[in-house]
Amino acid sequence: MSKKNATEINSLKPGSLKYVWRKLLKNKSAVFGLTVVALLIILSLLSPLICRYDYRSMDALNAYSGPSSEHLLGCDELGRDILSRVLYGARYTFIIGILSTAIAAVLGIAMGAVAGYFGGKVDSILMRFLDIFQSFPMLILAMAFCAVFGTGIDKCILALGISNISGFARLMRANILRIRNMEYVEAATSIGCPTRKIITGHVIPNAISPIIVEIAMGISRNGLASSSLSFLGLGVQQPTPEWGAMLSSARSYIRYYPHMAIIPGIFILITVLSFNLIGDAVRDILDPTLKE
Questions:
Q1: Which domains does the chain have, with CATH numbers?
Q2: 32 with 274: CB under 8 angstroms?
Q3: Is 14 left (phi over 0), alpha (psi -120 to 50) or beta?
Q4: What's this model's pTM, rounded to 2 decimal places?
Q5: What is the mean pLDDT of the chain?
Q6: What is the CA radius of gyration of the chain?
Q7: Of 37, 137, 192, 250, which is most buried with the most CB atoms under 10 A?
Q8: pLDDT value, residue 132
């Protein structure tokens, strides 16, 4: 890193988005993760233009065929092009992962901020409510919500979003408890600043840094969970080409046609790994104990 770039980064406020972004670009693992995620998003958006076959087109003569010059990643049991289905299916994995994490983050941050700032009975009631959610494994809880709400992309997003609220809420509450007695909060209270403005203008912005790490990890976790739900028949349904649904339909043929399961599995692995690399890098940047 040149002295000019180092000086510019050091002049930025630690924890700011610009500071985090500049630091990320200096981390090779994070750059790799960002590149892979960006490439997958671009390819998924451009899939109708770059793929030779429509993901719904069936060709019985090429059913179960392996990778070839005609079908680069082969075909599934109905003769549908796996490359087209994998690239198009990336849309659903990213949409479910991002939107479900957004729902969990917004609701969790709000609940955690209220519980941590007010304390007392409000804190006890909200935390006991969240204890009910945390008493079940996340995937089991999401399966229960899918059984209640039904199957489909929107139901999967809602189920995963609700299932992940407690993690964000408890993380935010812990940070609020740490900073609610800071001087700047007491100063805002002493001049009669409304409670709503204190929470939204002073408390949450100064407690949000660890949440950024949880969001990056949450997208990875929810993307993997959505594939798991689809694999179990509770998430995205056929013929929509979601990666978990593709794995589910290929499991009956994995002994004789392994490419049908290996290819979507590799894409799931690469995507989860990329988000984890990004999340680890953000954690290293925002964790004061790991800063240089």
A1: 28-290 (1.10.3720.10)
A2: yes
A3: beta
A4: 0.82
A5: 84
A6: 22
A7: 250
A8: 85
